[in-house]
Design goal:
The structure is a homohexamer of 257-residue chains.
Chain A lengths: L1 E6 L7 H11 L5 E6 L11 H18 L5 E4 L7 H6 L5 E3 L1 H12 L3 E5 L2 H13 L6 E6 L11 H17 L5 E4 L8 H8 L3 E2 L3 H17 L14 H7 L10 E3 L2
Parallel strand pairs in A: 1-2, 1-3, 3-4, 5-6, 5-7, 7-8
Antiparallel strand pairs in A: 2-9
Helix pairs in contact in A: 4-8, 6-7
Chain lengths: 257, 257, 257, 257, 257, 257
């Protein structure tokens, strides 16, 4: 099984770390590649206008790789481009962190909180949670006051903030499960689980493991993405005539397993 | 990894068939056992009062096996006893068909229909779908006019009915994904997929594969069920003093791998 | 008119008290019996797995008494087994505390809070309130930090806690009506009303009085429970063949008027 | 116990009939009066601008009678003026047909349809059903193509239409309970129940019986309307200074028991 | 273009001020008249029973003026009589503050808070916000502890309270936009915007400007109010026969431009 | 006042037509420019992956023009890039067809249907309608079986289809208002209104007129877009350092007034 993780940002800084986490967390036999974008792309996606700069890349990458990989993961907790990428993924499964972490939260407890970087993020993330149907279980979205590039820069500080807000989410807001609301909040969930005593869902692992599962069940049981109604792909004739999704592969930085 | 499938009915008639499906569908290394209930239990759960007769069994079995198995699956599309069993499952994951099939439907398409046996079933099943948060994507619940024991008794008729209602669900109601709304509707999803052209989620396989996934991630990442607030288990002291969950294991029919 | 109150626990400790409250609160001509369960049943239902141990009893009692009583009340604020019991109640009305108290709250004010025993209870009770359609009016569920057996053990303490949390529910959370979220919180509503100045709905009286009303209107106007679709009862043939709902009556402790 | 039924229209044509139904349906000891409005008021309330012409009357009557009656019923299925009348009802209970019939529907089945006079009515009535929290159970609102003054004018025709649409609501739309969506659809529910086999809630009886219940429990248990927050009444000082709610009693046609 | 502003209270005290605001805020070519009610009407509408006293006036004024004005604005943040007036407005547009301010809030930000006079008001206003579909964006309704007649009586105090609660709404509750929840909170939005730094929607200007827009587009594009189904007007024959909507014009105080 | 209409497709085919409609529909003094995208962009946006190809352009154009125009309109009924463009619009208002047409529908009637090109479109458009809060009023989304480039190619056929589905939406589905669910369905609303008799909202005019209104009120009353929380723009420092939003203006086809 082959899975592609997209870091939809114009920096390869996180590719190796995330690649290592995925390899360590994968089943035997799963091969994981990571791809990030050209340098002229935003280095993080905290702003929605930055997301706008990378959606085409996510779709291009998905289209170009939909036969090479069994599943593709969009590595941003805004789940940016999920609907758009799924449309052109052919038989490949596409997953994303927010939707996937909510599956875990709903199987492991009755309620959850999301620990996000900044208040800025809450508006869209809350809309996503409600859009996916999980609004009832949402206790709170607690901002850490940290940006994407802060999380790994000063890990002690990040951990302290996560523990502090995580405890409040559990004790004050009533969360039974915690979700880390950014893929770059990786590497903290174990300590948090030990100290707080509730499951803490990592935004890298959750969508990856669901991708792995769904890639397996696609092949075994034919549970490929629907291609009906809203999931209908664009016509190949138009794609060819208009020259769409042709961005050179070399534009993207592939880190292959 | 060890998984226990509960057929929460007073007949072992389906145990072998389901056991075989699970074994064939499992990852290498997964061991699957099946258990069904004593003969004085209802032979199906189409009536809610019948469900009432087996909830205690589901909880007893879960409590007694929560250290022997990594995950336990409740084999009824009403998801009977899911909250109750999860409370006493310790570190074992508990899954059930309705919640699990909805995860598949939401990852593979924008909308879905459920093909149920009788109109009788719709009221509670619809409430479950809405309760899990997936009401927006529900196009229809279409009854086949068949009971639990009819599905495998005349497979040709069942298949004809499934194809007929499945096509209507897609073409008239707008479903992008179909769900088979009873565990005993097993063995039909592949033909349906071939003929109708949309993914058809089987109610046996879906909760089993999610159980397998979540058992793996529990062990690997510590994502065990929350034991906080609403997920808090009963006190061991009370259980012991009151002699709860002590039903003799021999009451149940275990079919071990 | 004859009404049966089910105390669905393995203790008769509360039967007389509740019987007395009901008799005092009944219309002239209403006869009230109380039944509790065998000693091997849980002594309270704070845990959902405990509920699982008594659902069959609730259904058995309902089935066996549906011609002897005009209405049956399930005496637990989780409304445990309500759907299941209603299915086999024949022409008898079945009511339960949560649904009934919400009727009162919605007729007497625009918003309400529920004073529950422990945070543990909130998850399911909130789901029930939302499921019944009253989510919009719910200001808060405030836990008292007391268990079912504490409420009457130290009545002064209970009353102090109820007044404290009740006042906060009104003043801070905006509740116009208070609901006591456990049948064993009986005997406090009058003092609370005097001191806090809003209606305080008792979880014993509310479902009983609605049972009394609906039993009257069933007879007078033919408003018996629907037996269509989701309310269809199981087939008598199956019940007989499978020997269901046959638990010996002597298993249960009837306190007759 | 004394209950006042308001026919909020400028005709006394229905007063006697409704008075008789109420007397026949009341408990022993209940005294029922009926009041209708001055002749210059609309003769029916099918239009919302007509409702606007009578809201002041409903409030005036409620204010002037809130010490003379234990409960007051607003006799229009739009529940016109319910919030406004409740504000000035003092210790008297105020009920109305839509809210009350929904209580019955939700206790007697899982789903319901409302049989209304004209499509015109549906928009506001549906909004009310959703506003009260019962949207999930609503299968359909089926118009009969009849106006308020048609229902009793040609009873055979009305009955035929009710049976026809009622059957469709049950068989096609899935309703387990039927509600008659106008107080002037009185006198049909019994035949409908006999012929269709599901409970049929009459819009006169339902709010009256709930008024009777709540008047009883107000006195017995102190469950009077909340007077807090949104239920706070206007200041008596202002009422007096501004001369409000002073409409002469003789303006209204009281039919006393 | 001619627009009529209704001050639905029994005092002309605010007519000139509001008239001036409207004239200053109008497009060139727009003519604005203001009308208020007879002296025996309530001087404010904080109580719902007071609203009941003026709904007929609002409908009468709308009916009598629906050919003289292109649009009519109901000047109370409860949006009192909006459905009723729209029914008889013919080709004239009818707008009201709550619905209109929500349009602004949803175009200018993701979330909003409403600054209301008293807690009393919140229950109905919140119901309106939810009824219009904007519940998701509502962060809070913060009461100022001031009545309608306080706002302009001590403007310094009002401004201090508005700034205080407005800042809390933004900083604590997460509002991106503020709405002034009473038409008599006029004259404060500019200072608030300067000091708090978010858009502050004035309840006089918002419905007026939408009225102006919709009057323009009615004429230009034929976008007049629907007269179908729930928007169907009453029959002219009935209106004439029953003598409805005939209140003498001289009853009302018109302040013409 | 200056307004920019973005035709977010790689063809200028519709620019003049839409420009003319806007000029004819504008107030005196409004200047309207139209811009479309480079030829390598998709010629329509029926597929979500096509939307992904143009979001960056929409954001670039918005960023580059936010001081030159008072308002910017995104000309696609998917409202593609609305959140993203609003973030970088500075003081300029950004509107889009779906959100704007819903404002009209909600002011002109109680319910509405949307006439879309293909079933494919419904999934996302319905999600948008629900996301904006207007789900309750949505009667139906009826597909015409026509693509974006068909609407103007055979206008007789389009009109016939629109009349046919529009009538069904009104008569069968209960719509009081119709919305044309594509900007290229321009030029039909007047005939439809004449023939069907309900308001028909054009997807070009609605967002343009709201843009015009909000540009006016921004300047007059300071009602500029919020820049707080979720509406906070990206940091200028990052934009400059990373060279974002710098696409050459000459890439885009501006049709200036």
């Amino acid at each position: 099984m082959k899975i592609l993780w997209i870091n939809p940002v114009g920096t390869a800084a996180f590719d190796e770390y995330i690649g290592d986490i995925l390899k360590e967390g994968s089943r035997s036999g799963t091969k994981v590649d990571v791809v990030s974008l050209a340098e002229d792309r935003p280095k993080h996606l905290e702003s929605h206008s930055y997301e706008a700069m990378v959606v085409a890349d996510i779709v291009n990458i998905t289209y170009q790789n939909n036969k090479k990989y069994d599943a593709i993961v969009i590595g941003c907790y805004y789940d940016v481009g999920l609907r758009e990428a799924r449309e052109v993924s052919g038989k490949a499964i596409v997953t994303a962190p927010c939707q996937s972490s909510l599956v875990y939260a709903s199987f492991l407890g009755n309620s959850f909180s999301v620990l996000v970087g900044r208040r800025k993020w809450i508006s869209k993330m809350e809309e996503n949670v409600i859009g996916y149907g999980y609004g009832r279980g949402l206790c709170s979205m607690r901002p850490l006051g940290l940006g994407v590039h802060d999380f790994q820069a000063d890990r002690d500080k990040t951990q302290a903030r996560l523990l502090d807000e995580g405890r409040k989410a559990v004790e004050e807001d009533g969360a039974e499960v915690l979700i880390l609301g950014c893929t770059i909040e990786y590497g903290f969930h174990e300590t948090m689980q030990d100290k707080i005593g509730v499951p803490v869902i990592d935004a890298v692992i959750a969508p990856f493991k669901l991708a792995e599962l769904m890639a397996e069940t696609a092949e075994k049981f034919g549970w490929y993405p629907s291609r009906k109604w809203g999931s209908e792909p664009p016509s190949q004739k138009e794609i060819d005539e208009w020259g769409l999704f042709k961005e050179k592969e070399s534009t993207y930085n592939y880190l292959t397993d």
